[in-house]
């Protein structure tokens, strides 16, 4: 008689698992109450916990009551409202898209809402809070619709969604920065607010947006059972009677309403909507959406209040006024995003999207393309020398070259030629860097900016500017280089897990980019909070005030790195295919990757030190070059360099002439020009994938 096989004993239940969802909610609520009690004791005045404890017993003084009602309580309630709204919004977006990295930030919802509010302020519109909230809702909804459409409704990978959201957010931020530069007085204070500020003068924002947030939360909780069914798959949900399309649309709209309400109250507080649902999923015994949604809201409150508490504990009460707590939440969110990316299983190389193939395969056709690009670049340089707030004639330029112009024209052209050359050299450097990065990542949608290199260089340069405002060219280049190298090293080391995953490299790069941007904002507002226009201009990529010596580092970097990339051209061709082919053919993968990435870091850092942060060039120029001459790096590299120089040169000229004597930074123009191209690129690859 055989002995029946007994099932192994169930693992002992942990205290949290025994408590279940209701217990987790109660424990989190208790933590929120404790955080709120600590939060309300902090501030710029000397009113402490004991002074506040006396108030309920009628023993406190009137000053303590006034400070509590006028400052600390509005700030606390704003943090609670924003935390609930963003936590629930992130949980809804992640559930609807079934993507753990979806959030109001990665879907550009907050960026769209911020642009709408900044646009109203720039044009002098003083709107009631309700209309301001409606405007933020429309802006966030438009941004989310664009990102989800480009990402094919979430049916493609996480990397594609993050790239689409990051590029859209970059374009929207560029537009917002442009408004703040052109309308500095009307948008005063919006720079720090753009990272999330809990400073409140009264309870108006909370009392008007609070009921809306609670209604949206209630609607989300009521839809929880349908969300549970949706988690089983679209087909199963349809069989069980769930209208999948309508549910997705309604809950996405609900998430955007919540994010827009949060922006209306406190500005774009970064990455709360990403972190809160991730933390909730780590809690044992919590699975149903009727529990996870309120929990995400409570965890969001803990993140917002905890960040504000940590900020003021580390830097003092005044830091709560000067430094937006959204900086701290962004740093925390970037760490969570990196952690998620390290757990992400690579879906394989991101294939090059379909492009229009032009018959440029023969050597003669390739030389024709090079000659045409060279002629266009020459014309752009000539136009750049003529245009500006003071237009000159071609004959004046010839006379200047021969040293026969008067003092006035000589002064104008002596100031102009370093700007024109800086744009050309920086554009060439960024294009070459983008070519190398796309080969290493095997992703034609990657660029140095999305790997955190550009933002890292910006942190280094801004840090030096804050500490030593009159720093010279070489210290500035060294600081930018140090920041870029640090960012690149962090991204590379964190991406390595028994090999280098191209998807993981991009996702971690986006997280590091967000962290570097948050650090940059903190440095600016702490060092000189009232001079944000200067910082914005530099961070948007400007050639203003350039001198010839500033061109030397980027020129040397081009002379060193472009030949290196050309020498590695065959290895990069193989590296762009997959992980196995170059190994079989004997290509030393890691040395080639390190050399290419090191060269791109050097090029990016020197370009940033010369003209500031310029986006999209490293994305557009290599892709356009492949469309013209094919995918071989021997041909892509020279054409990409010429196209990058042409793009930044034209952008600089447009920025100097369109609204002269006011100027638009070249980086903003490249972002505005690059965004439609990027949207078209993603849309073409989407339609081809769907077909």
Automatic annotation (TrEMBL):
Top-rank lineage group of the source organism: Bacteria
Membrane topology: Multi-pass membrane protein
Pfam hit, one: FecCD
Record InterPro entries: ABC_BtuC-like, ABC_transptr_permease_BtuC
The entry's keywords: Cell membrane, Membrane, Transmembrane, Transmembrane helix, Transport
Record localization: Cell membrane
Residue intervals passing through the bilayer: 20-40, 76-96, 108-127, 134-155, 161-183, 253-280, 292-315, 327-344, 364-386, 420-441, 448-467, 473-494, 506-527, 547-568, 601-624, 636-654, 666-683
SUPFAM superfamilies linked to this entry: ABC transporter involved in vitamin B12 uptake, BtuC
Keyword Cell division: no
Primary location class: membrane
Tagged with keyword Transmembrane helix: yes
Recorded family membership: Belongs to the binding-protein-dependent transport system permease family. FecCD subfamily.
Protein name: Iron ABC transporter permease
Source species: Planomonospora corallina
């Amino acid at each position: 008689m055989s002995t029946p096989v007994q099932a192994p004993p169930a693992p002992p239940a942990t205290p949290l698992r025994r408590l279940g969802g209701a217990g987790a909610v109660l424990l989190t609520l208790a933590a929120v109450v404790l955080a709120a009690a600590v939060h309300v004791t902090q501030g710029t005045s000397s009113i402490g916990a004991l002074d506040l404890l006396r108030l309920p017993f009628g023993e406190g003084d009137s000053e303590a009551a006034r400070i509590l009602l006028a400052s600390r309580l509005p700030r606390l309630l704003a943090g609670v409202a924003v935390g609930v709204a963003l936590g629930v919004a992130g949980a809804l977006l992640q559930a609807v898209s079934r993507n753990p990295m979806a959030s109001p930030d990665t879907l550009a919802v907050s960026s769209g809402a911020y642009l709408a509010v900044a646009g109203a302020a720039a044009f002098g519109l003083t709107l009631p809070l309700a209309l301001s909230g409606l405007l933020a809702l429309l802006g966030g909804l438009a941004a989310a619709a664009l990102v989800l459409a480009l990402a094919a409704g979430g049916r493609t990978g996480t990397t594609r969604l993050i790239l689409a959201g990051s590029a859209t957010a970059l374009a929207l931020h560029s537009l917002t920065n442009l408004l703040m530069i052109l309308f500095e007085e009307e948008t005063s204070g919006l720079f720090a607010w753009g990272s999330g500020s809990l400073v409140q003068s009264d309870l108006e924002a909370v009392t008007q947006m609070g009921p809306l947030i609670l209604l949206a939360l209630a609607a989300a909780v009521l839809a929880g059972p349908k969300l549970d069914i949706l988690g089983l798959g679209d087909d199963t949900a349809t069989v069980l009677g769930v209208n999948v399309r309508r549910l997705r649309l309604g809950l996405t709209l609900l998430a955007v309403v919540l994010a827009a309400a949060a922006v209306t109250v406190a500005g774009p507080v970064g990455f709360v909507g990403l972190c809160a649902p991730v933390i909730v999923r780590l809690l044992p015994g919590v699975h149903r959406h009727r529990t996870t949604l309120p929990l995400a809201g409570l965890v969001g409150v803990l993140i917002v209040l905890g960040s504000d508490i940590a900020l003021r504990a580390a830097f003092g009460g005044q830091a709560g006024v000067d430094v937006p707590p959204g900086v701290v939440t962004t740093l925390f969110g970037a760490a969570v995003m990196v952690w998620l990316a390290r757990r992400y299983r690579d879906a394989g190389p991101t294939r090059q999207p379909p492009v229009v193939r032009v018959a440029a395969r023969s050597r003669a056709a390739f030389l024709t393309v090079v000659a045409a690009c060279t002629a266009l670049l020459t014309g752009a340089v000539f136009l750049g020398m003529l245009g500006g707030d003071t237009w000159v004639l071609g004959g004046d330029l010839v006379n200047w070259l021969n040293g026969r112009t008067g003092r006035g024209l000589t002064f104008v052209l002596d100031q102009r030629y370093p700007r024109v050359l800086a744009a050309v050299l920086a554009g060439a450097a960024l294009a070459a860097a983008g070519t190398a990065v796309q080969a290493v990542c095997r992703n034609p949608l990657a660029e140095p900016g999305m790997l955190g290199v550009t933002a890292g260089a910006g942190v280094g340069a801004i840090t030096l500017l804050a500490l030593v405002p009159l720093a010279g060219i070489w210290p500035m280049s060294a600081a930018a280089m140090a920041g870029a190298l640090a960012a690149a090293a962090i991204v590379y080391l964190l991406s390595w897990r028994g090999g280098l995953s191209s998807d993981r490299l991009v996702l971690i790069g986006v997280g590091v980019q967000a962290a570097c941007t948050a650090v940059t904002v903190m440095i600016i507002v702490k060092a000189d909070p009232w001079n944000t226009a200067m910082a914005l201009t530099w961070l948007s990529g400007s050639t203003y005030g350039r001198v010839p010596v500033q061109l030397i580092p980027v020129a040397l970097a081009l002379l060193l790195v472009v030949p290196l990339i050309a020498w590695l051209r065959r290895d990069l061709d193989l590296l762009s295919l997959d992980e196995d082919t170059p190994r079989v053919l004997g290509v030393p993968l890691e040395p080639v990757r390190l050399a290419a990435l090191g060269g791109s870091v050097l090029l990016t850092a020197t370009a940033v030190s010369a003209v500031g942060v310029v986006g999209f060039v490293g994305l557009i120029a290599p892709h356009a070059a492949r469309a013209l001459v094919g995918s071989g790096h021997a041909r892509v590299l020279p054409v990409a360099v010429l196209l990058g120089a042409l793009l930044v040169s034209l952008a600089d000229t447009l920025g100097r002439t369109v609204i002269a004597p006011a100027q638009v930074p070249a980086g903003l123009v490249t972002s505005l020009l690059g965004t439609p191209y990027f949207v078209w690129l993603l849309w073409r690859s989407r339609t081809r994938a769907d077909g």
